Amino acid sequence: MVGLMRLKRLTTISVVSVASLWAIDHHSEANSLWSSFRAVRFWRAASAAISVSIGYLSSPTVTNDSSDNEKAARSELHHRSAIRLRDMCSKNGGLFIKAGQIIASMDYLFPHEYVEVFKLFHSDAPKSPLKQLKLVMTKELREDVQDLIEHFESEPLGAASLAQCHKVLLKDGRTVAMKIQHPNVKVTSGADVKTIEFLVHSASWLFPNFRFDWLVKEIKHNLPKELDFIQEAQNMEKFSKLFSKFSFIKAPVVYWDLTSSSVLTMEFCEGGKINDFDYMKKRNINGSEISWKLGRLYSEMIFVLGFIHCDPHPGNVLVRKDDNKETEIIMLDHGLYTQLTDQFRLTYCHLWQGLLNGDTEVVKKSCQALNAGELYPLLASMVSARLWDSIADAKVSKGPPSSTEVSSLHSNCL
Question: Among residues 15, 131, 280, 335, which is most buried (max CB within 10 A)?
Fold first, then answer.
């Protein structure tokens, strides 16, 4: 009888404890103290991964020959799973938001349901409270915030995975943009990398076709660079110098007196996001002109200089009319660049010449020189976003793909 009473008490305590932990987690924010605990972050990520895995393991495989109902069911599963993972990433914040942004940028690798769901992170990542951000500023700049700032706008200009940016009026009269790291991001990032690595390896074991180990390697390699705002400021100045010949391209000026490894202070630049078509229409900004100018910029980056801005999502590219009423593009977030070797750059030039001319032999040799091996048709399709048959028929230079080709690309590659 005593043993049964103890078992009931233990069961009650366990249920209450689990319910309490769930309630705490349900109401906690991404940048709260609770969310900084490694065990909590791992538990959230593992729970979401297990839930999603069970969904896919218990559903039938879908092929091109599957019925419309089966394809619709798979699409719904993709959508439901993407929301489950996105909600987990929102709770954990930091590196998990970065992972979500990567997914949103890879429409050639992930189902469109995932891409659409995770696009939210390009404009609406979790925000840190102002009180916490001001503590980071005081620690980093070694000055009382009240002595520096006249007015601090509470609503951020943008919130990202590792930091958020605010418009600030300084005591000396300068209006600046201050990019401030989330308080716990450096503390949690190391453990988060290990968690993501573990989950990706586990997913690869469960689903042999799920091979994203390379993505973990990229994150591990790039994270220290993105957490160092001194390096970002140096990249910003290098960008301005290298591309100064383009009068239509601008990067904000860095204010070094108020910049550290976790706080970046720069010129405040007005502008609308490159996908804000209402903003562009009201200001008579021509979308085709913007596309041409961005193409010119990235052609210079890739084919001439080999110095490439690696995060050009819509939240990082602004457009506006300058003082001379000319259309100007403002590039933000210079934390991550890659420097191509001359050999890679030249090989990539040859690849694109082959793609545009429909020369499959040049395309094959170039792709194989880039270590694609016998998967050269896949690499060519990924680079050009065209089917191999279209490449062979020299259709790449003749116009955009048809809706049928786009649909076929998604079904074959995803």
Answer: 335
- Alpha-carbon span 332 to 338, nearest angstrom: 16
Q: What is the pTM of this model?
A: 0.80
124 given a catalytic annotation:
no
68, 311, 322, 323: the active-site residue: 311
pLDDT in tens, the chain (414 residues): 544 454 444 444 433 333 333 344 444 454 454 566 788 899 999 999 999 999 999 888 776 667 888 888 889 999 999 999 999 999 998 889 988 888 888 877 788 899 999 988 876 788 889 999 999 999 999 988 889 999 999 999 988 889 999 999 999 999 999 999 998 888 888 899 999 999 999 988 888 887 788 888 888 888 889 999 999 999 999 999 999 999 999 999 999 999 999 999 999 999 999 999 999 999 999 999 999 999 999 999 999 999 999 988 888 999 999 888 899 999 999 999 999 999 999 999 999 999 999 999 999 999 999 999 999 999 999 899 899 999 999 999 888 888 888 777 766 654
Which residues are CB-contacts of 253 (< 8 A; sequence separation ≥ 6)? 266, 267
CA nearest neighbour of 92 among 195, 215, 228, 164:
195
Contacts 24+ apart (CB under 8 A), 358-362: 358/391, 358/392, 358/393, 358/394, 358/395, 358/396, 358/397, 360/391, 360/392
